[in-house]
């Protein structure tokens, strides 16, 4: 009997962990570019899913940006069909006319197509091949741009993507392992020229920065960066939960009878951040820990209609200054033409300027 390559075993174990306990009986859908990471993911899923009584499908997106991309997509879909994936689809997208640079436009088109495919096939989850190396790169890039804890938390192993659960089973598997797994299985991955294009910051981190860090600090640096992401993610989730609780609508029991809600002992009730009639209470906001308060303000700004992508830490800092550095300043302007003013102990929003 031929021994199972450790790299293949590692990928299968990771996929088994991710698929175990998934609710619903639809298929899982692997997003596969044909590169080593998502090919190793696909091969592991083709092995594991049927053994868990789960169907597996595969979608590859053709961005139509490089010559021969349609042939690559067709080859990936043909391999998927031969490996037993149903569906095994190549989907062509139109990247032109989308906002942002070419990379962002391709990414947006890709995720839109993947979500549509997941819905079309009633998939219970979409699987991507992000590895521990991708995670380390993400954390370093976040650190370099001063992204704060949300960026340092890296990519979560699961998140919601427009109503579709997105799973990243290989976040603890290295890129070296995915390459070895493909080699052990006789699969020939596609090399995306973008991955080595030095005009992308991520490619430079991949080619120069991480190897330099490993040389200087040892191979554990990759694991350590990924662990940092997990630790920060746990803290961030706790702070997010506190902020969500603080921003929850006022408890009707407290509004009706504050003393009774406090247990009848006349003790203080926690100050309500939301005030009846709209707006937020400055006094209640001032009583929150800064890390919770800035999250509350960020969430409130989004609720008012400020687009998350346009909402920067400067906007949140300006809102925070209305609470903690009040000098009678005028309105704070948020993306989308939203103005926030402090009046009579409240932060109130005024809609987009006409
Ligand atoms: N053309 C494609 N078709 C289908 N899936 C793809 C394609 N390109 C990438 N993916 C999926 O996305 C994963 C990550 O790929 P890549 O790192 O190139 O994307 P990304 O833009 O960095 O994604 P993210 O921004 O979410 O990190 C791959 O492992 C694969 O699962």
From TrEMBL:
Localisation per UniProt entry: Cytoplasm
Pfam families in alphabetical order: ATP_bind_3 (PF01171), TilS (PF09179)
Swiss-Prot/TrEMBL keywords: ATP-binding, Cytoplasm, Ligase, Nucleotide-binding, tRNA processing
InterPro entries noted in UniProt: Rossmann-like_a/b/a_fold (IPR014729), TilS/TtcA_N (IPR011063), tRNA_Ile_lys_synt (IPR012094), tRNA_Ile_lys_synt_N (IPR012795), tRNA_Ile_lys_synt_subst-bd (IPR015262)
Name listed for the protein in its UniProt record: tRNA(Ile)-lysidine synthase
tRNA(Ile)-lysidine synthase substrate-binding domain ranges (all copies): 280-347
Family to which this protein belongs: Belongs to the tRNA(Ile)-lysidine synthase family.
Domains as described in the record: The N-terminal region contains the highly conserved SGGXDS motif, predicted to be a P-loop motif involved in ATP binding.
Superkingdom of this protein's organism: Bacteria
Binding site for ATP: 33-38
């Amino acid at each position: 009997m031929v021994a199972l390559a450790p790299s293949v075993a590692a990928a299968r174990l990771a996929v088994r962990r991710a698929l175990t306990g998934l609710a619903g009986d639809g298929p899982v859908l692997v997003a596969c570019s044909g590169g080593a990471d998502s090919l190793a993911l696909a091969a592991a899923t083709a092995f594991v899913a049927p053994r868990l009584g789960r169907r597996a499908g595969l979608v590859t997106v053709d961005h139509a940006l490089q010559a021969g991309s349609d042939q690559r997509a067709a080859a990936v879909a043909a391999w998927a069909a031969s490996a037993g994936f149903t569906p095994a689809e190549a989907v062509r997208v139109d990247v032109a006319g989308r906002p942002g640079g070419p990379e962002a436009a391709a990414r947006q088109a890709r995720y839109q197509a993947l979500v549509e495919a997941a819905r079309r096939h009633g998939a219970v989850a979409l699987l991507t091949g992000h590895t521990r190396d991708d995670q380390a790169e993400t954390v370093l890039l976040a650190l370099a741009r001063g992204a704060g804890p949300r960026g340092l938390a890296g990519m979560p192993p699961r998140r919601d993507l427009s109503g579709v659960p997105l799973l990243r089973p290989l976040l603890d598997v290295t890129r070296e392992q995915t390459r070895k797994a493909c080699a052990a299985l006789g699969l020939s991955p596609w090399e995306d020229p973008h991955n080595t294009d030095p005009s992308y910051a991520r490619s430079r981190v991949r080619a120069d920065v991480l190897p330099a860090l490993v040389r200087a600090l040892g191979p554990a640096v990759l694991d350590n960066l990924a662990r940092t992401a997990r630790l920060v993610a746990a803290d961030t989730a706790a702070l997010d939960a506190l902020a969500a609780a603080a921003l929850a609508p006022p408890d009707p029991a407290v509004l009706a009878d504050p003393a009774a809600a406090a247990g009848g002992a006349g003790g203080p009730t926690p100050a309500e951040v939301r005030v009846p009639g709209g707006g937020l209470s400055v006094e209640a906001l001032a009583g929150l820990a800064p890390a919770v308060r800035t999250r509350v303000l960020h969430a409130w700004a989004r609720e008012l209609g400020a687009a998350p992508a346009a909402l920067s830490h400067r906007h949140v800092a300006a809102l925070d200054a209305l609470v903690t550095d009040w000098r009678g300043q005028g309105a704070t302007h948020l993306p989308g033409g939203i103005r926030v003013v402090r009046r009579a102990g409240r932060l109130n929003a005024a809609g987009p300027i006409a």
